[in-house]
Amino acid sequence: MSDQIVTRFAPSPTGYLHIGGARTALFNWLFARGHGGRFLLRIEDTDRARSTPEATAAILKGLDWLGLDHDGDVVSQAAGAARHAEVAHEMLAAGRAYKCFATQEEIAEFRETAKAEGKSTLYQSPWRDADPASYPDAPFVIRLKAPRTGSTVIADAVQGDVTIRNDQLDDMICLRSDGTPTYMLAVVVDDHDMGVTHVIRGDDHLTNAARQIQVYEAMGWDIPVFAHIPLIHGPDGKKLSKRHGAVGLEQYQAMGYPASGMRNYLARLGWSHGDDEFFTDAQAKEWFELDGIGKSPARLDFKKLENVCGQHIAVSEESALLHEIDAYLAAAEKNPLTDTQRQALLAALPVVKGSAKMLPQLLEKAHFALTTRPIEVEEKAAKALDDVSRGILSELTFALQRANWTREDLEAAAGDVASAHGLGLGKVAAPMRAALAGRAATPSVFDMMLVLGRDESLARLSEKAT
User: Fold this and answer.
1) Rounded to whole angstroms, how far apart are CA atoms 396 and 423?
2) Mean pLDDT value across the chain
3) Residue 356 pLDDT exceeds 80
4) Torsion region of 340: left, alpha or beta (phi above 0 gives left; psi -120 to 50 gives alpha)
5) What per-residue confidence (pLDDT) applies to 246?
6) Residues that are catalytic
7) Which pLDDT tens digit goes with each residue over 176-199?
8) What is the pLDDT of residues 307-341, one digit of tens each?
9) What class of enzyme is it (predicted)?
10) CA dist., res. 448 & res. 437, Å (int)
11) Residue 150: CB partners within 8 Å, gap ≥ 6?
12) Do residues 323 and 258 make contact, with C-beta atoms less than 8 angstroms apart?
C-alpha cells in the first residue's frame, strides 16, 4: 500500500447530493488534505437506468460550492466495466470464483424449500465445485467462491473490529449473465486501481465491507483502512428525511447558508476536537483524525448551524462574502446585483456582517446600501415620520451640512438636535432610519451615513424632511 493517503468520494448520480453525502465527502477531503494526500472523485454510474447527467452535474456543483476540490479527473465507474469483467475472469481462472448456471426460478425454489425447512435461505450454488466438463451451453454468472467457514473481520477505524461469520455471507455475483459487473465488484476494483488507502463512508455500507474484503483477499490485494461513519439523524433522532426540511446540499445554498459555515458545521456533525465548535478550514485539516469520529448517529441542529454560519460571516473577508452572495442569488434564482450595488454592498459589509447568521439576513441589513432614491419606506418605519419628526429631520439635515463627516461629529450634531427638543438620541434615530433605509430595523444610523457618504446621506434625509 502506498505511503501517501488516498481517499475518495463515490456518489451515485441518481439524484441530488444529500447532506449526508456532503459530510462524507468533507471527511474524506479533510483527511486527505490534512495528511498531504489525494482526494479523488468517482461517479458510481453503473445503474444506467437511474443515473443522469443532471444528477452528476448537481453533485459536482454541490462539491464546488462547498469548496471540496478533488485531485485528477472525475472517474466514471461505468467506463471501467471491461476492467471489472477482467478481474472477475482473473478470479475465475485462479479458482477463486466459479461459473453458476442456476436460473432465477431455481434460486427462488431453493429459497422457498430452505424457508419451509427452517434452514438458511442464503443461496448455495450446486455449481460451486462442479466439473467444467458438466457445464451446459447456457447463460451463467460468475460468483465469488467465498469461504464457508470461519469469519471475516472488518478492522474499522470508527466502529472497531466488526466480525461477520462467513456462513452468513453467500457467494456473491461478480459478473452478471450479460457480462456486466455488479456494484460490489466494481467498487473494489476501482478502489484498488485508484490506489485508495482509506475508505471513509456511511455505516450503511458496513455489511458490504465484509463481502468486499473477500474480493480483496481473492485477488491478493492490500485491504484499505475502512472507516464507517454513523448516519445523520434529524432533530427528533430519526433518520434524516425530507420531513426534517432541506436534505439536498443545493437547498442549503439556495437558503443562504455560507459554504464556510456549512463546512465547519458538517465537520462537527459526528466528529469532535475537544470542545471546539468554531474553527477555520486550516484548523479542521490539521485536527481531523478518524479517531475523533463518534459511533452514534449525529443530530442535525439548525440553530447550531445558523450560529456557526453567523460566526463565519462575521470573520469572512468582504470580497469572499461578495462572491458567496453572488452564488447564493444565482442558486436561489434571484436577480443578480448590479455593478453599482456590488460596490455599495462591498462598502456596507464591514458594518453589517457581524450581526447576520445567513446571507438573506446580511442582504436585508445591507438594504440601505442597495436601495436607491426615492427611498421606499416600509409601514413600520413610516410611523416614525410624523410631522414633528420631519421637522426635526429638516433641522438635522441643516446641522449635518456643516459637520465634518466623522462618526464623532455626526453623533455630536444629532445629539445637539435631540437635546434642543428634549429628546434622547433614540427618538431622533428612528426617523433617520426611515429616511436613510426605509426600514425600522437597520445598522447604526451613523454607520449607514459613513457608508453612504455625505451627499447621499443628506439627499435621503432632505427627501423625507418637511
Assistant:
1) 13
2) 95
3) yes
4) alpha
5) 67
6) 242
7) 999 999 999 999 999 999 999 999
8) 999 999 999 999 999 999 999 999 999 999 999 99
9) ligase
10) 8
11) 165, 166
12) no
Q: Is 119 annotated as a binding residue?
A: no
- What would the 3-class secondary structure string for the chain be? CCCCCEEEECCCCCCCCEHHHHHHHHHHHHHHHHCCCEEEEEECCCCCCCCCHHHHHHHHHHHHHHCCCCCCCCEECHHHHHHHHHHHHHHHHCCCEEEECCCHHHHHHHHHHHHHCCCCCCCCCCCCCCCHHHCCCCCCEEEECCCCCCEEEEEECCCEEEEEEHHHCCCCEEECCCCCECHHHHHHHHHHHCCCCEEEEEHHHHHHHHHHHHHHHHHCCCCCEEEEECCEECCCCCECCHHHCCCEHHHHHHHCCCHHHHHHHHHHCCECCCCCCCCCHHHHHHHCCHHHECCCCEECCHHHHHHHHHHHHHHCCHHHHHHHHHHHHHHCCCCCCCHHHHHHHHHHHHHHHHHCCCHHHHHHHCHHHHCCCCCCCCHHHHCCCCHHHHHHHHHHHHHHHCCCCCHHHHHHHHHHHHHHCCCCHHHHHHHHHHHHHCCCCCCCHHHHHHHHCHHHHHHHHHHHCC
Task: Dihedral sign for Cα 184, 190, 196, 197, please.
Answer: positive
With a cut of 80, say whether residue 152 has pLDDT above it. Answer: yes
- Residue 2: what pLDDT? 54
Check whether 71 has a pLDDT greater than 70. yes
Over residues 440-451, the mean pLDDT reads 96
The pTM of this model reads: 0.92
Residue type, 135: Y
Give the pLDDT confidence score for residue 15 in this predicted structure. Answer: 82
Domains of the chain: 79-229 (3.40.50.620), 379-464 (1.10.10.350)
Would you say residue 174 has pLDDT above 90? yes
How far is the CA of 314 from the CAs of 5, 91, 354, 446, in angstroms?
34, 57, 4, 20
Q: Which residue has the cell 461578495?
A: 322
Question: What would the mean pLDDT of 270-275 be, rounded to a whole number?
Answer: 93
pLDDT tens profile 387-416: 999 999 999 999 999 999 999 999 999 999
Of 174, 240, 164, 247, give the one whose Cα is nearest residue 206. Answer: 164
